[in-house]
Queue: 2 jobs
Job 1
Amino acid sequence: MTTNKTIVSKGYAVHNAGEKLSPFAFNRRAVGASDVLIDIKYCGVCHSDIHAAKSEWHGSSFPMVPGHEIVGIVKEVGSLVKNLKVGDRVGVGTVVGSCGKCDSCMSGDQQFCNEATWTYNSTEKQIGGTTYGGYSNNIVVDERFALKLDPKIDMASTAPLLCAGITTYSPMKRWKVGPGQKVGVVGLGGLGHMAVKFAHSMGAKVVVFTTSDSKVKDALRLGADEVVLSNDKKSMEKQANSFDFIIDTVSAQHDIDSMLSMLKRDRVMVLVGLPNKPHQINAQTLIHGRRILSGSIVGGVEETQEMLDYSAKHGIKSDIELIPIQKINEAYERVLKSDVKYRFVINMESLNK
Ligand code: NAP
Ligand code: ZN
Ligand code: ZN
């Protein structure tokens, strides 16, 4: 059943760049014919939320309700909704709209559509208005962007798959990570720990590069075969020319040139970390060894569904620290100190406190 009424929402918002988040009441669009209204149960805290809240990339618009690792339960469906019903468990990631006609949309890469609508801090390109994300009690999205969750999975530890999961799964599939390969994961945070789990499950030998010696034991538990402290020059030198694939998840500017030199000839390093300052590379490092440097951003809708199904089948979920929304500012500070094991997830029930 649908009504024409706008949806009343409550959440936490950032009101100016870099300020702390605080309670915020707002309205969402009415549930349209192809929309679903979702009661949000949990939302992951991605480092991108922090970059955006600090307006570190292109200009952010405020007030901003961050959050794009959303899981919840369908509460209402529009009259033309075909694939979802009230009571279904669903997830929403970083993209909630696209033109549906361009080359990117036709190939299932909606995240590259020029008309893509992002879950927050974006204009609703298809219908007008501003988007507000998942640090809130509900969300209205077109059913095409609400992904089905296996009814048996744990919802809280599945939330991070909607961004950290797909962002690491997608480039591994694209570059055909598999058995017999040596895969490097740079940075053991939210994205990094998912990368370790996926690479391990795909049969690769996994080496984690971390700046935190406190994470060595965890890295091995998560599925790494070896851990290298990236500030230890000697250990780094031993890894030269030995990798088939490297995924770099680091959120800050760092020495990617030395990481590139770890690749074997003709192999690929993919950047997914998005620092606000540019990296430096030496052309020599690419030229000798004909190495390839690439990038990747989340994944398409169908591929995200594939990743969710793959994760449910292989028992892959995120290692989380569950927090009430009232602890969000503290959580941001800890993420900035690389002190999260390995993803904060907000329990949205806490909004009622
Ligand atoms: P995170 O949990 O903070 O993890 C980042 C990790 O990078 C840290 O835990 C730390 O790992 C390492 N690190 C941080 N500062 C460093 C420094 N100065 N030098 C070397 N290593 C450092 O963040 P996340 O949520 O995983 O996100 C990581 C990055 O990916 C962010 O920039 C985010 O915006 C971006 N992102 C991109 C996409 C995409 O589609 N491309 C999607 C989501 C997020 P160690 O302690 O192990 O060194
Ligand atoms: Zn994210
Ligand atoms: Zn398009």
Job 2
Amino acid sequence: MDLENTIQERASVSAEPKKVFVRTYGCQMNVYDSQRMSDALAAEGYVASDTAEDADLVLLNTCHIRAKAAEKVYSELGRLRKLKDERAAAGKEMLIGVAGCVAQAEGGEIIRRAGAVDLVIGPQTYHRLPDAIRRVRGGEKVVETDYAVEDKFDHLPAAKPSVVRGRGVTAFLTVQEGCDKFCTFCVVPYTRGSETSRPVAQIAAEAENLARAGVRELTLLGQNVNAWHGEGPDGSEWGLGRLLFRLAEIPGIERLRYTTSHPRDMDDELIAAHRDLDRLMPYLHLPVQAGSDRILKAMNRRHTVDDYRRLVDRIRSARPDIAMSGDFIVGFPGETEADFAETLKIVRDIGYAQAFSFKYSPRPGTPGAELDDQVPEPVKDRRLQELQALLTSQQKAFAAGLVGSGMAVLLEKEGRHEGQLVGRSPWLQPVIVEDAAGRIGDIIRVRVTHANANSLSAEAA
Ligand code: 5AD
Ligand code: SF4
């Protein structure tokens, strides 16, 4: 009798699907990639798990942009090694995979440093993930970081409406990957490779699937998204502006955004899209990084502060209500107090609704890391504090300026309290709507009643 029970138990255990836990670090493209990896694994019978503790496979999708981001991976791997040992003691398996930009940058070195890791897979080879896992199961340690000749997007399972449904009414869609700009501080050209654009038909098909699954707002992603180009159905060369017009025709897609842009790739057609396309939201993430021409040159940004100013003027005349967002680096090698003062000046002159600012982090293999004149840490700290104080005050002023006005909000999820729904403003702020007459996925008119630290409160108008 005992034996019978055991056999039955075994049968039910082996019939249980394997669980995968994916932890995502870094940018929105990693969020998108993690979903595509989960989709690829779902096709192999894996179900998603919310915790590492009960997962048969743990994937860390990592970020290499600054030292801090990369270091997080190794502390997490230390924690996972213990979990793996505990599971092994209980007769259970736990495979550990490292994906993303740390995987690409460090390759097999990760396994030498963290022996519990079974698989290292770079962003260009995610379509090989199911096969790599099979090899790991066969007892191999697998490192997949070669740039694949085949197009990964051709081989990753499509975002089927049935799979995507339930993930929400907003979605990311990668249209471009990699970068050829080689800013001297940045690892992206090395970890994500050279600039590639996905074809129009592939993007449109994925957008249509997302729309059918209930997505109302699409954010097009690329490290240099506005460098996207492709051949349109008419045989002519399209830029991102044309693509946005095409996607705006898809029934159900009510809102479009794109990120991240380089100032050099904002062409006339894209600016015209901001003027003519209502569905393109009036919000633009356009990093300038620094406010001094000398530093911009050392960064190899290939534009001046004045180029940037004039560009923002043109964008604002095309779309007067556009809100600007940006990235800033303080303490790039050689940055003097006078250079830093110019960064504060461009921030004051432009006025940002939202911004991200960082201390320069020397990254191995980038030209910036080799420069003399590295700025001492305490100086970077002070500059960052000063810059962030200014940016925070601008962000608050922007939100405060919306109080009392009406706006359209896309309802995204339930709020914390009964009757509340949380949505998103055209300018990407979370909006808490009291007694919202509408359902998730609806776009409703509201009146802003209050600006909170990181959100707006509103009532249905
Ligand atoms: N140090 C600090 N910040 C960096 N960024 C990119 N590389 C570095 C670095 N080495 C910032 C830039 C970029 C954003 C994604 O991260 O501002 O726009
Ligand atoms: Fe990095 Fe952006 Fe410069 Fe490319 S354009 S090197 S992704 S900062």
